[in-house]
Amino acid sequence: MLFKQQALLRQKLFVLGSLAIGSVLYLVARVGTLDRLQPICPIESRLPPPDPEQIPLRTLQFKRALLHELRKGNATKEQIRLHNLVQQLPRAIIIGVRKGGTRALLEMLNLHPAVVKASQEIHFFDNDQNYGRGIDWYREKMPFSFPHQITIEKSPAYFITEEVPERIFKMNSSIKLLIIVREPTTRAVSDYTQVLEGKERKNKTYHKFEKLAVDSGTCEVNTKYKAVRTSIYTKHLERWLKYFPVEQFHIVDGDRLITDPLPELQLVERFLELPSRISRYNLYFNATRGFYCLRFNIVFNKCLAGSKGRIHPEVDPSVVTKLQRFFHPFNQKFYQITGRTFNWP
């Protein structure tokens, strides 16, 4: 009888010991898995927060899900209060240029855990009706964020609208301004292509690019055509420089953002005074779409809308050459002002 009791006791101790060992092994494996699930911000590259009150970037990364719920309108007021979330005015704005890659730039910067983007173009400063609604209306259009995150919005019409520089200056004279540009003739054709596609969807006819870009009476470049006028970057920038010093602008190479985005994004990180967090892991080339897509983590990837990367219509080479010669002196002045040179014709 005593022998049976001792055998039963040994059996129970064996089972309990096995469970304890199994639990320890599970916890060890789980910790290893959690470390592997942090590809955007690897352990060896994490920096301690410079301010003890600042939310570490690692924390911001893991709370993206909450911000996503806020954008969908699913978060409660209690969650907003509990996490000290706020709607902040932007500390940086992508002011242009239309068809330069503003959407791609905004989405790529959103990879950074300290950046929160306004999903829609607000058109506050270029629209008199919106501007008349006041700065509080503008703030309410911003996404919820943690206090130490940077909110960024983009509205490409800002760059070419005369009233905008003064209006933004009145809001924040020290704001950082991002301008993404492409080779001017390519950008003008891309601009035309987007308008053409919209006309075709409505079964409307539209002039050929050559007829719009060149004045048939003088055979000179038609500067009244908006797509041409927008590509004269220096003319618009000079208006902005009446309010902001050149140091508050950063010029992004839109052509390079298409072919090799990481170096351009790293330059923007430095300009915004953010720690480097975007890596090659976050960007992968999609051969089907023909451009880079975004990888936030091992489960969430994102590609830009199918409307991006439209095929341009063929343009008469003589018109292309005429436009390139027209833009050349303006480009040279743009290089001189910004201190950045591009391999444009």
TrEMBL record:
One GO CC term, this protein: Golgi membrane
Main location: Golgi
Domain Sulfotransferase: 90-334
Reactions that this protein is recorded to catalyse: alpha-D-glucosaminyl-[heparan sulfate](n) + 3'-phosphoadenylyl sulfate = 3-sulfo-alpha-D-glucosaminyl-[heparan sulfate](n) + adenosine 3',5'-bisphosphate + H(+)
Disulfide bridge positions per record: C293-C303
UniProt-annotated location(s): Golgi apparatus membrane
Residues that span the membrane, as ranges: 12-29
Membrane topology: Single-pass type II membrane protein
Gene Ontology terms for molecular function: [heparan sulfate]-glucosamine 3-sulfotransferase activity
SUPFAM superfamilies with a match to the protein in the record: P-loop containing nucleoside triphosphate hydrolases
Listed name of the protein: Sulfotransferase
Phylogenetic lineage: Eukaryota, Metazoa, Chordata, Craniata, Vertebrata
